Request: fold
Amino acid sequence: MKTSPILIIGKNAKTGLRVEQRLQALGYNTRGVSRSTSPAFDWEDPTTWRPAMEGTESAYVTFYPDLAIPTAEQTIRDFVALAKEVGLRHVVLLSGRGEQGAERAETVLANSGLEWNVVRASWFMQNFSEGFMIEGILNGELMLPAGDIVEPFIDIDDIADVAVAALARPELRNRLFEVSGPRALTFAQCAAEISEAVGYPVKFTRISIEEFLQALREEGLPKEMLWLMNELFTVVFDGRNSKPTSGVEEALGRPATDFSEYLRKVMASGAWDRSGLLQTA
Ligand SMILES: NC(=O)c1ccc[n+]([C@@H]2O[C@H](COP(=O)([O-])OP(=O)(O)OC[C@H]3O[C@@H](n4cnc5c(N)ncnc54)[C@H](OP(=O)(O)O)[C@@H]3O)[C@@H](O)[C@H]2O)c1
Reply:
């Protein structure tokens, strides 16, 4: 009997990509969707949801831009209702630590009657190499509205491993995995470790939230993303998430990946290689 594909919402997203690659390597049939796929899936256009979801029974779901935004709870409520209608039975939801809005969305899923998992993650290490901080690293200066607060950044390869385990192993169903890396670091400490790995200086400069938001405004970031950045740096990043958690170990029976191993992988990938930039400068 042909098994139905596993739906991945966020095909090109940092974790979605990795979850799909792992599932395919294990021989699962997958259907990765986002706004640029066919069928498309757009969180802002619910008419796209049904065609993308029909014929699937389990899903890995990443919300965009973040479950912390005020409309996320209702969107997840609508999504879960449709999931039940189309015959989806199991949903694994990526969430963020310490975000009240995200916790409300998690509760909607956990009380839905669907089988569920929540992977509630700390800040991604890959924000430094695949996200909004890569430019700062390449320019040699990371300017952020953050001081002495520490964060146990997580390697998203670990998130993908946990999500795949949740999809593949029925005994893990109906559980929340709060996942983080093993070591809590300030952004300044991350910059110092990155400097050592890349071999060029990466300075950390603390700026005010107003300066940070103004710079993002000048880059043309839309209003809702400015709201989100403000929320993440002023509300969520207040020390509430500073303790490392054991979710990776609980799901996988092995420790979470350290920042040093993440650095080794990024160096091997060439993502922070500035030689091309310097030659054309
Ligand atoms: N970054 C972190 O540190 C962190 C920590 C904890 C949790 N999270 C969670 O991780 C999730 C993804 O975060 P991320 O910043 O890492 O994102 P990301 O990987 O940068 O994902 C962006 C992807 O989302 C797709 N997308 C954009 N708008 C969409 C829409 N309206 N509908 C459907 N797909 C859309 C885009 O693909 P297309 O252009 O093809 O649509 C794009 O490839 C969020 O739910 C966030 O809360 C992030």
About this structure: The domain at 6-186+238-270 is CATH 3.40.50.720 (Rossmann fold). Residues 72-86 form the longest helix (15 residues). The chain has a mean pLDDT of 95.
